[in-house]
Design a protein that fits this description.
By secondary structure, the protein is α+β, with helices and mostly antiparallel strands. It is built from 3 helices and 6 strands. It has a single domain (3-145), classed as 2-Layer Sandwich (Heat Shock Protein 90), CATH 3.30.565.10. A 6-stranded antiparallel sheet has the order 1-2-3-4-6-5. A hairpin with a 2-residue loop joins strand 5 and strand 6 (138-145). Helix 1 packs antiparallel against helix 2 (52-72) and helix 2 (52-72) packs antiparallel against helix 3 (119-126). The longest helix is centred in the middle third of the chain and has 21 residues, at 52-72. Residues 1-20 have low confidence and may be disordered.
Amino acid sequence: MASTQGQRGRAHGRGVSSPTDKRTVRVPWAASAAPRVRRTLVEDLTGRGVSEEVVTEAEIVVSELVANAVRHARPLADGSIRIHWTVRNDVVEVEVSDGGGATAPRPSPRTTWGPSGRGLRIVRSLAHEWGVVDDHAGRTVWASLGGPSRRRTH
């Protein structure tokens, strides 16, 4: 991994995390990023006692979001993708930030034989909430798993 930053508060019980339980990882903008991020995320969430169901959902979602960032967007200015996650009471919010792309992320229409285009439909089906935030540095796609987000976008 290129770099990992984070703070970790004391756990108050299985699956219960303090408000400072967050992690940030930067990886090179490359196809090899998804498996590396997935392993790091799963190890971290499992070590915190997050439920197996939420860990599995987070693993799938982060894989899809990182793959989409590599496939459809540009890297951040430093050539990386930033992955950030926060854990609060068995709710995991994951964000993937990239340099933005030509089109806004949205689920593709359902097709029977299409070779791709299912990623954001998978994210939408697993996430309690998800969304897209554009800013001066690029774009962040986020998803909340295991319960509602702290963002409340609607």
